[in-house]
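Protocol step 4 of 6: record predicted structures for both targets in the notebook before any analysis. Target 1:
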Amino acid sequence: MTRFIHEKFAKDYLEELLKDYGEVKPSEKVSGEIKEIDVLFTPSKQQSSNLQVLGLLGRFAEHPAILEPSIKVG
């Protein structure tokens, strides 16, 4: 469950940025774990050359990734 509005925004933002490059599963439960991860990303089989427009996030998106955005407020 998302506790903060900023965390929800970060999940939605990552999903929107990455959806054209692979499968994005926000709030995915990890088997064998009680914890829920924020975003599970699996890149498409055919890599897109457009990933470079995402900068550092595009470099992460070249490989499967678990993304846990952390936003410090205040």
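Target 2:
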Amino acid sequence: MSGAAETAGVIAPPPVLYLGSLIAGVILDLLFPAPLPDHALRLPAAAVVLVAGLALVAVCFRRFKAADTNVPTWMPTTALVTGGPYRISRNPIYLALTLAYLGLALFWGSLWPLVLLAPLLLVMRYGVIGREERYLEARFGDAYRAYRSSVRRWL
């Protein structure tokens, strides 16, 4: 990997970005309440979405462990993971974090965390995913380019 960075150099660890956005949404809701409409399905839907996100994270982590590569973005990637959920999305961990975020936002019952999801996803796209894509291309070359051309970024 001559000349390539040892890590992707993302702006912050993705879980920190998601948690920060969620906390900002809760703070905004405490200052300027914007409750979601009360609906009998809100809490069950929140539970399903949250559990789906957490389950997907677990599957992805197992894939990384099986490939003997690192999950944290501040550590070098030692293998290209392309199986399991990575056959459908190049970023299933970020999809999982988004699902977990949505589940927690629904549990909280405020519009604010949902409003902040759009800017969060922009930060993820440009401050995390874009940097990871450049890093992976530099690190794995043609193998990553072939993977990128055959699997969508999100879904």
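Step 5 preliminary note on target 2. The mean pLDDT is 96. The chain has one domain: 14-30+40-71+79-150.
Proceed to step 6 after PI sign-off.
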